């Protein structure tokens, strides 16, 4: 399937601030997406991909797939690596976290991208792919807020809380002038318009993170166990983040969830969350960084899986935060692609690799965590 090709201009000097995502494709670089997933049109313009910071690995090709949330970041990383390392190529296919994990566990990719943590059974299964007694570990590589985007004509400032969102996405609140929504927006004239919630049709880490928030912050209203597969009742579905974006754009009354980068690129209004803080919290990179700061590493024995506090009520802390992980073997990786994979992931985790995606609306992986990621990459065998 063809894709729009653009280039992105880097800042002339590195900037230390919260991560964002912007995307580009240079000639000769292959980054694949499945149909209906990631349309990267509308991203920043011309870019010089030359960098002295990229340390090249050996020639060859490494295949990877998974998270659509990090597809834009991967596009930038792949392009810069390819421009500076002509003999090494990384092909990343944005198929969704569920498919990415499955392909990694089948041994068909060098690493997988996932926005949700592997289950214990999946880690056990990885021991069949990871040689020499190795197992899969999580490397947090990029993060950002999950936006709740909506299309309500005449309403560009909408406040909702976790309970109301849960009832909307479970089809128990089905009109925009419902008294519960009006109570949260007393100064807004809400239309008598049907609500159409859209969810992901594919297995998605974004779904896992969004439903984890609903379940943690409003357990009575959202009794379903968080999952990569949608469990709510009613509504409609679409494939991939850009599929959901298209549905929101095309349907008055629609509401859905996707990474902030997609909302920003497509001019979609985002819900402001009433978290119990002094003021409702907007989906911004800065507020997501505050949300991530409330999290912690829970992985053991070299695993860097993180736990997010979805119930935080700290002022300015946006709680629906997604962390995109690269799933690799700690040891026993495929020797044919090991050194290339290590070189590429070392670049993505480097200071410049993290800074290069700061203009496209993702929040930074905390310094104390990304330094551990760099160590784990070097230890891969």
Going by CATH, the architecture of the largest domain would be 3-Layer(aba) Sandwich
Low-confidence stretches are: 1-46
- Tell me roughly what share of residues is in helical segments: 25-40%
How does the helix and strand content classify structurally?
alpha/beta
GO biological process, one term: phosphate ion transmembrane transport
Keywords: Phosphate transport, Transport
Protein name: Phosphate-binding protein
InterPro entries: ABC_phos-bd_PstS (IPR005673), PBP_domain (IPR024370), Phosphate-bind_PstS (IPR050962)
Care to describe what's here?
The chain is α/β, with parallel strands linked by helices and about 375 residues long. It has 2 domains: about 30-145 and about 325-380, Periplasmic binding protein-like II (D-Maltodextrin-Binding Protein, domain 2); about 145-295, 3-Layer(aba) Sandwich (D-Maltodextrin-Binding Protein, domain 2). It has 12 helices and 14 strands. It has helices spanning about 70-85, 95-105, 120-125, 160-170, 180-185, 205-215, 240-250, 260-265, 285-295, 340-350, 350-355, 365-380; strands at about 30-35, 60-65, 90-95, 110-115, 135-150, 160, 195-200, 235-240, 255-260, 270, 270-275, 295, 305, 320-330. The strands form 3 sheets. Strands 1, 2, 3, 4, 5, 7, 8, 9, 10 and 14 form a 10-stranded mixed beta sheet that branches. A two-stranded parallel ribbon has the order 6-11. β2 (about 60-65), α1 and β3 (about 90-95) form a beta-alpha-beta unit. α4 (about 160-170) packs across α6. It is elongated, with a radius of gyration of 20 Å.
